[in-house]
Amino acid sequence: RMTENLGMGQLPEEQKERMSPRYIAPIVVWLASADSKDVTGRVFDVSGRALSVSEGWHRGPTIELPTDDPAALSDDVKRIVSEARPNANMSGYDEE
After folding, report:
1. What are the angstrom distances between the C-alpha of 92 and each of 13, 26, 55, 67?
2. What is the C-alpha to C-alpha distance for residues 24 and 50, in angstroms, rounded to an integer?
3. Alpha helix segments (H runs only) across the chain
């Protein structure tokens, strides 16, 4: 199994089962079919029988690059990162 050596030995069998590659196969086959011809640029998440479509990337805080010098970006990059909304958690949901 592909995930056999990824340190998941302590997970309960029920949780391991939700990560089974067999749940990914149906969406992969569907995406390769003619039915998916209008679906492009999307990311899908599969966890057990739950299939979701990721809602994409959104442009967050933006700056005008003041210079071509990477070292000069430090303060500006730290500022816009601190202004950006937090990343989703490992399950893909916003932290609450």
Report:
1. 22, 21, 10, 35
2. 10
3. 13-18, 25-31, 74-83
Whether 89 has a pLDDT exceeding 80, the answer reads yes
Question: What b/e readout covers 52-76, taking b as 16+ CB neighbours within 10 angstroms?
Answer: eeeeeeeeeeeeeeeeeeeeeeeee
Q: Evaluate if pTM is beyond 0.85.
A: no
pLDDT above 90 coverage of the chain, percent: 28
Q: What is the pLDDT of residues 48-78, one digit of tens each?
A: 888 999 887 788 999 888 788 888 888 999 9
The radius of gyration of the chain from alpha carbons, rounded to an integer in Å, stands at 20
Query: How far from 47 is each of 27, 69, 74, 76, CA to CA, in Å?
Result: 12, 43, 38, 37
